Amino acid sequence: MQVEFTPTEEDHRIAKLAALAIGIHVLESAIPSPIPGIKPGLANVITLLTFVLYGWRAAVWVSLLRVVIGSVIVGTFFSPTFMLSLSGACASLVVLVVIAGSGGLGLSPIGLSIVTAMAHMAGQFGVAYALFVPHPALLGLLPVLMTAALLFGAVSGVFTCKVLARLRSP
Amino acid sequence: MTKADGVVIALALVVLGYLYAAFWSNAKGAEAAILVDGVETQRWPLTQDRRIDITGRMGISQLEIKGGKVRFVASPCSGKQCVHAGRLHRSGEFAACLPNGVSVYVVGSATEFDAINF
Fold first, then answer.
1. Which ipTM did the prediction report?
2. A94-133 per-position pLDDT tens digit
3. Cross-sheet strand order for the sheet of B31-36
4. Number of CB pairs, chain A paired with chain B, less than 8 A apart
5. Which of A146, A151, A156 to probe by mutation at the B interface, max B CB count within 10 Å?
6. pTM across the whole model
């Protein structure tokens, strides 16, 4: 049996963007981190770009493809790291879809990036607390992690703005 | 940057302030619980300095609460492990004089891990 599949232009676009995000994800996994859960999250720049340029559907695809394929390449597929990464991505996508549903709320990529970074961290932390370390002492890390999310979210947002400006000026 | 971004950042700072206030305010242990032969006999707040003499199997163990920390000052045992345990202040920290059957641990809102491995 032969399955006929003709990729559309959008399929190609999503694949290219996901490949970019996966590349960043893999490069970033080589950076050591002082506390588990803190990393720059620059792959999110691609998700945000996709969201701004092509809408939330494409952003969901790019983000989930990045998490799954990125973890296969790095070697964390189905490990706790992967679970945390996936839950964070899902939380930030839910927020992104809600924002898209309410017409964007006048947010620039900087605001979007901060909101999604903090949603990512909150979702990830919730799963870590519920599944892996259900101990009150873990809550002591939450303020630090959320502060990191705010800072790195702002940085990613600025990067996204810069890239968008380049893409839009011919 | 748009106005909405400013609102997002302001809200984020409020959330962070709340998180620090909620989870970082009482990280230190609040009370020292003293056990004789595994049974709690006394409990003292770490905020008030005091000396406590506890009679155990071999004799009197002297404990001291000072500057928010508790320690064994002296004990009739030979090893003095309890004295060498030093000053305790984090919740969950523990020191014991096993020969004398006297032990002390810090009771707080949350206990700390000895180690976390990933």
1. 0.80
2. 999 999 998 878 899 999 999 999 999 999 999 999 988 8
3. B39-45, B31-36, B102-107, B94-97
4. 60
5. A146
6. 0.70
